[in-house]
Amino acid sequence: MDQNIQSLENSSLQKAWGQRTYLLGTLSPAPVIDYARNTHIVIPGSAVDKESDQFFQSAYLRAKMYQKLYPAHQVVILSQPEVVRADNREVYANYNVTIVEEKEGKLTGSKLIDELNKFQRIESIDFYGHSSPWAIKLGKKDAAMGADSYVSKLKDNFVDGAYATMNGCNGGFQIAPGLSKYWNIPVSGALTGSLFERLQVDGKWYKKADRTDGKWAKENDFNFLDPIHCYDGGCWRMKPQRNNYSSYWGYFKEGGLSFYKFFCNYDSKNGSCEKAMAKSLLSFPASQKVTAKPSRKVFEEIVFDYLCSTAKDPNYFSSCVQGIKNAVAKGDLVYKAHPGNALDCDFKSCKAKVVCSYKSRFFGGGIKAGTCRLNTKENKKPTTLSKEYLSFMKGFDLL
Questions:
Q1: Phi and psi based region of residue 297 (left: phi greater than 0; alpha: psi -120 to 50; beta: remaining)
Q2: What total number of domains does the chain contain?
Q3: Is 278 exposed, middle or buried (0-12, 13-18, 19+ CB in 10 A)?
Q4: Three-class SS string for 118-165?
Q5: What is residue 254's predicted lDDT score, i.e. its pLDDT?
Q6: Taking Cα atoms as reference points, which of 319, 151, 153, 296 lies closest to residue 242?
Q7: Cβ contact 201:214 at 8 Å
Q8: What is the mean pLDDT of the chain?
Q9: Burial (CB count within 10 angstroms: exposed 0-12, middle 13-18, buried 19+), residue 62
Q10: Is 16 exposed, middle or buried (0-12, 13-18, 19+ CB in 10 A)?
Q11: What are phi and psi of 371, to 5 degrees?
Q12: Taking the model in full, what pTM does it have?
């Protein structure tokens, strides 16, 4: 009996230690990180000890896409997963990610930048997790990163054609434009909430409310010649919801967008912004086999998958595709797929500001949850969606 109690205590201590660490791992079986090698860094955010490992699985699938696309490159997963009922090492082990380094403490924004700063040739950074208009959540408490000036130390570590994606809620308001400004690379972010999508047998990805029972794929043989089983992390991705944000911070009834918008908030020349945008879609899990050299037709299909949402009604997706095509053919580019007010955005920012009430100093100050909204005007001639399509296609032609 005493031995059993001691065993349980040791197990609890091990789990507590595992949750206080963050890990650097690689998809290579060799436990080595080469900081001088061209590297794709994927960052699953914290599940705050309340949720499953879907952030990790979505990030892992992106990492597998990179591994297939660029066998000469290095793929690193950097995370403090904090998944419910699992320590951080278990999460890595569940998906055969080789742990190279384990470090004690919170993965704060400054620590993240210090870790990233060791990599001399960064090809891409992809974050998957909780986020607000102001920061991405790296750990469950006091561990976040915003677009603050200290992130600029990473600017010289990116290779030509690098990019970053912020896969979470509302990252397009401040985080993505801010990081783009400090890093001098394209960065994407959401202008609404983000949800998980799961692969179904028709090769399309659906949010929970839109899935059909009995139609879930068992493995991902759409992206890979050697299929990845869904239990092994091959069937989850993230995309923005197709309505306005309404959750913890407030209700943004004033508008939104239903795709991850790219920002190139720097002096971009000779189509370098659009080219990097297009390059990012090569690793976006759509319904096509991963390849570094898709045909223009196949690439366009990936663009439509990225920009348009699926729904229970199959006509919802096809209407979005046709709407973009019609807007481009007409030449005025006026079209919106987002219900309600589709925000007016360019490569620098969106014409919308998040405004909130603040708690009194007596209650600790800071933004008061549930009070935020958007300060914006009605966009009577929405062109943001069509312009994004044209930017991706321009970028493809430059690849």
A1: alpha
A2: 1
A3: buried
A4: CCCEEEEEEEECCECCCEEECCCCCCEEECCHHHHHHHHHEEEEEEEE
A5: 98
A6: 319
A7: no
A8: 94
A9: buried
A10: exposed
A11: -105, -5
A12: 0.94
Q: With CA atoms as reference, report the closest residue to 255 among 195, 368, 170, 327.
A: 170
- 44, β-bridge pairs: 128
Does 381 map to a domain?
A: yes
Tokens standing for residue 163: 């990019």
Q: Which two tokens stand for residue 7?
A: 């065993």
- Regarding predicted confidence, which is higher, 363 or 262? 262
Per-residue pLDDT tens digits for 156-206: 999 999 999 999 999 999 999 999 999 999 999 999 999 999 999 999 999
Q: Is the pLDDT of residue 97 over 80?
A: yes
Determine the Cα–Cα distance for residues 335 and 328; give it in Å rounded to an integer: 9
Confidence of residue 14 (pLDDT cuts 50, 70, 90): very low
Confidence class for position 19, pLDDT limits 50, 70, 90: low
If phi over 0 gives left and psi between -120 and 50 gives alpha, with beta otherwise, what is residue 142?
left
Instruction: Please say whether the beta carbons of 329 and 358 come within 8 A.
Output: no
% of the chain with per-residue pLDDT over 90: 90
163 close to 276: Cβ distance less than 8 angstroms: yes
Is the pLDDT confidence value at 2 over 80?
A: no
Residue 360 falls within a domain, yes or no?
yes
**Phi/psi at 162 (nearest 5 deg)?**
-70, 160
Per the structure, the complete domain to which residue 165 belongs is given by 19-397
Residue 338 lies in a domain: yes
Q: What's the rounded mean pLDDT across residues 269-275?
A: 97
Backbone region of residue 375 per phi and psi (left: phi > 0; alpha: psi in -120 to 50; beta: other values): beta
Q: Tens of pLDDT along 352-381?
A: 999 999 987 776 778 999 999 999 999 999
Task: Decide if 277 is inside a domain.
Answer: yes
Residues with Cβ within 8 Å of residue 287, at least 6 apart in sequence: 203, 204, 205, 222, 223, 301, 305
**Residues 217, 198: Cα–Cα separation, whole Å:** 8
Per-residue pLDDT, 359: 85
Structure tokens, 40: 């794709």
Hey, what amino acid is at 150?
Y
Give the C-alpha separation, 318 to 363, whole Å.
49
